[in-house]
């Protein structure tokens, strides 16, 4: 849950974060190469899922676990793997298609816990045996998939989960049209669409393409029973709806 005024946005433009030039080069690359370039400074940008969200998801999963084998889908530098390590007993795997992000993840210091492995692979064609995991999580990755890719993505997750296994991820309530955040995200998506219309290879990152109603329908079509859990740490909006929820899709 980052905002235009978050401390991480300040870090992005400090010597510790990427420069405007580096971000421009990344945005004119493919998604894979762009994240290879960004990887060394990724954890100092707003693109990384905030620790508060990771902590809330870990706490929610701990109430329903423990689990045996977990997979962090599109793991990036490994923040979600740290969540899995708290709730999985046997093994944890991170998969990402960016070699640069995985290189940073492998260098991370981790306390004793389940065995951790890192795999380079495409989430749309997961290189794992059927039923290899009983928990899959993902954080902040879905904006990199076009809507027509979701059925295949969710089918892949379904295939690597054991019967009764769970696919869990947080989802934020969309900003209201009267809020600055709504227009900022709308503008960002418009810029990305223009960029992709004029420049190749495309860089897929659309913040408004992942809508809960569509996601729920696609998960159900893929064979999941879909539930929602409020993450109470983030409170409620003025209309009483949760600010942040966790989608828990259980393989039938």
From TrEMBL:
InterPro entries according to UniProt: Methyltransf_25, Methyltransf_Superfamily, SAM-dependent_MTases_sf
CDD domains given in the database record: AdoMet_MTases (cd02440)
Molecular function via GO: methyltransferase activity
The keyword DNA repair is annotated on this UniProt entry: no
Domain Methyltransferase: 71-165
Source taxon at top rank: Bacteria
Pfam hit, one: Methyltransf_25
UniProt keyword annotations, A-Z: Methyltransferase, Transferase
Gene Ontology biological process: methylation
Protein's UniProt name: Class I SAM-dependent methyltransferase
Organism for this UniProt entry: Streptomyces longisporus
């Amino acid at each position: 849950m980052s905002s235009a005024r978050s401390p991480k946005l300040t870090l992005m433009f400090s010597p510790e974060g990427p420069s405007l030039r580096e971000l421009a080069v990344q945005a004119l690359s493919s998604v894979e190469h762009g994240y290879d370039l960004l990887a060394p400074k990724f954890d100092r940008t707003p693109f990384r899922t905030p620790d508060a969200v990771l902590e809330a998801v870990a706490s929610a999963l701990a109430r329903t676990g423990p689990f045996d084998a977990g997979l962090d889908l599109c793991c990036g530098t490994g923040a979600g793997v740290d969540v899995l390590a708290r709730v999985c007993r046997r093994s944890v795997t991170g998969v990402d298609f960016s070699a640069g992000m995985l290189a940073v993840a492998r260098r991370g210091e981790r306390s004793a816990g389940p065995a951790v492995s890192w795999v380079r692979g495409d989430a749309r064609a997961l290189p794992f045996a059927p039923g290899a995991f009983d928990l899959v999580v993902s954080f902040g990755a879905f904006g990199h998939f076009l809507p027509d890719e979701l059925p295949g993505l969710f089918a892949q997750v379904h295939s690597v989960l054991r019967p009764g296994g769970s696919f869990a991820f947080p989802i934020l309530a969309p900003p209201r049209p009267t809020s600055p955040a709504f227009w900022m995200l709308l503008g960002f998506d418009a810029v990305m669409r223009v960029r992709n219309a004029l420049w190749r290879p495309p860089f897929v990152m659309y913040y408004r393409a992942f809508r809960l109603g569509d996601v729920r329908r696609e998960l159900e079509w893929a064979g999941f029973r879909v539930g929602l859990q409020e993450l109470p740490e983030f409170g409620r909006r003025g209309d009483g709806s949760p600010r942040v929820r966790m989608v828990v899709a259980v393989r039938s």
